[in-house]
Amino acid sequence: MIRRRGRFHRQMIVLSSMAGSTLDLVQGLWRGPSGRRWLVPLAVFLCLTGAVLILAVTVEALAPFVYAIF
Amino acid sequence: MKILGISAHYHDSAAALVVDGLPVGAVQQERLSRRKNDAAFPLEAIEWCLDHAGLQPEDLDAVVFYERPMLKFDRILISALRAFPHGRAAFAHAMKNSLGEKAWVRGLITAQLGVPRDRILFTEHHQSHAAAAFLTAPTRRAAIMTTDGVGEWATLTVGRGERPAGGPIRIVLDREVRFPHSLGMLYSTFTAYLGFSVNEGEYKVMGLAAYGRPTMADQVRKVIRRTSDGAFALELDYFAFHTTVAQSYSRRFVDLFGPPRQAYEPIDLATPEGRRFADIAASVQAVLEEILVDMTRGLHAETGLPDLCLGGGVALNGVANARILAESGFERVFVPPAPGDAGSALGAALYADRIHFCNPDRDVPDHPFWGPSIDDDELARLAGEDGLPAATLNDAALVEQTADDLAAGKVVGWMEGATEFGPRALGHRSILTAPHDVALRDRLNRDIKYREEFRPFAPVVPIEAADRYFQLPPGGARLARFMSGVFPVRPEWRERLAAVTHVDGTARVQALERSMAPRLHDLLEAYGRRSGLPVLLNTSFNLAGEPIVNRVVEGYSTFRRSGIDVLVAGRCRIVKRARARTSLIEELA
């Protein structure tokens, strides 16, 4: 049996993994042969946006404030 | 080593478990969640795989995801920027879609399974397809071609695989075609244009193609041109899938091919409009075949190998596969039972085992039955609750009784053993009936499957007898093992196989080897003794819009809701109450 975690716990784990995944993306863009280094700021910005969206889902009290931004 | 493979988040998610180099279980999420083409994170499928092997998540040495989400995100981002400013809405949608969950797969797996981050690996999408095709095929060296809609960037790859006895295993994909140039997207665009659901209705386009003539092939060649390197490129002005999620084709596409079909409009092949749609389907099918044959011919010339492994969703196109076998120069063509994304879960796990961890090669059993097994006692219990008489018989009696039912023109729901991994019912979750009666075929379409009249049904035949009824080229029986090729029915048998012979005289035949499904093989022989023809119509055991049944309770529910006359699950057999009464009255009379 897979031990089920609460939603808050799961989302916090996902949030904590985002830095590593973002780093993977940045490294891919930086080292890639196609000269896409200029995309790094946009990619990081979008990943941060994703983090904020996941935060809104995780902590529902924050959701109205987060969605107000968009 | 214990390696879990996962595919998810596009369509048809799945999980597969490989222990010490061999699969021990693989199942699509839809079979357990009961949502057709379920793309969600396959938690139930993972749980079943682990329970089946008696493992806990912490016992796993690695969890492998079938593609690289960040590379995919890179493609989505670049494509959206290239389309700017046209794709503003698509950009917002794609970002919301990707950044919500799909991009953070490592965290998601850790959160759901509790597996440490360092045990989570990623393969590339087409590496997973290639591994699913090559590492499960009974060949040591083969050329490989994978073709689908899109993975990360690649839409088609070609290369080769080697697994010499005792030597290192290699899968090398030398060249690729990149998004948005894609054969899968081309076919899906025509699927959408013809009013069918993308990723679901491609079968319908292939079925419809047989009713038309490729009169518009030149127009199709305008939207996809060949390139000097032997590949192809889409003329993007005709398409919209790369700029918007709402539409696959552009206004220019409509100008070229005429008004699209609306999904709610029936296709009446007696009308000029119906014939136009059939001609368009035939045209795109012809051009797809032409390109695939040409590319595989080039691959054969380049590699000089006799075997070809095909992977990716386009490998489900049995008509194209048969032409590749006949015209490319390859002697044998291998298509796994699950060449699409679901099968990539198994491919990713095998890739990690053989290539990443360099474990020794092992021959993967050559069958598709990797899913949950039925409970032999369940049908008797369910029928008992409803007051239906259930008979529990030994294998021989059950086979003879079922052959009698089929010879009497009944429709039989047939469940045994483990469910198939992949989209096709290959004998463990099937609806079976006699192959000669067109009225039975129409009844299947109307009362049981609730599907379009132009879609053909497939036959199953013992491999020893296949060549007698179907024109199988050398290597054709292999392609027919998992129903991956469409071959002509011999003209002298077409009338007696009318329910399984498509309008163009072909059939997507399954050539059944006894060792793969012994009881179904016995049933075919028993039916052959009665009818003189050991062939049955075999279609997947589900109703329209539902996944193929998995547990007996789902088969029983389908039996109760449809026009199936007899249900066999394990050794238990039940018949519809009304028919049971009729039989009783007949017997008394």
Distance between the termini of chain A: 40 Å
Number of helices of chain B: 21
Characterize the largest beta sheet of chain A: strand count, sense, and whether it forms a barrel. none
Q: What quaternary form is this?
A: heterodimer
Number of strands of chain A: 0
The whole-number mean of residue pLDDT values of chain B reads 93
- Total number of β-strand segments of chain B? 22
CATH architecture level-2 label of the largest domain in chain B: Alpha-Beta Complex
Helix content of chain A: over 70%
Choose one word for the global shape of chain A. flat
What is the SS-derived class of chain A? mainly alpha
SS field, number of helical segments of chain A: 3
Q: What ranges of chain A have pLDDT less than 50 throughout 5 or more consecutive residues? A: none
Write the topology of this structure.
The complex is a heterodimer of chains A (70) and B (589).
Chain A: H1 7-31, H2 40-58, H3 63-69
Chain B: E1 2-7, E2 14-19, E3 22-28, H1 29-33, H2 43-53, E4 62-65, H3 69-83, H4 88-102, H5 105-113, E5 120-122, H6 125-134, E6 141-147, E7 154-162, E8 170-178, H7 183-193, H8 202-209, H9 217-223, E9 224-226, E10 232-234, H10 251-257, H11 272-303, E11 307-311, H12 318-327, E12 332-334, H13 341-356, H14 378-385, E13 390-392, H15 395-407, E14 412-415, E15 429-433, H16 438-449, E16 458-462, H17 463-469, H18 476-480, E17 487-488, E18 506-507, E19 510-512, H19 518-531, E20 536-540, H20 552-561, E21 566-569, E22 572-575, H21 577-588
Parallel strand pairs in B: 1-4, 4-5, 6-11, 11-12, 14-21, 16-19
Antiparallel strand pairs in B: 1-2, 2-3, 6-7, 7-8, 9-10, 13-22, 14-15, 15-20, 16-20, 17-18, 21-22
Helix pairs in contact in B: 3-4, 6-13, 7-11, 8-11, 9-11, 11-12, 15-19
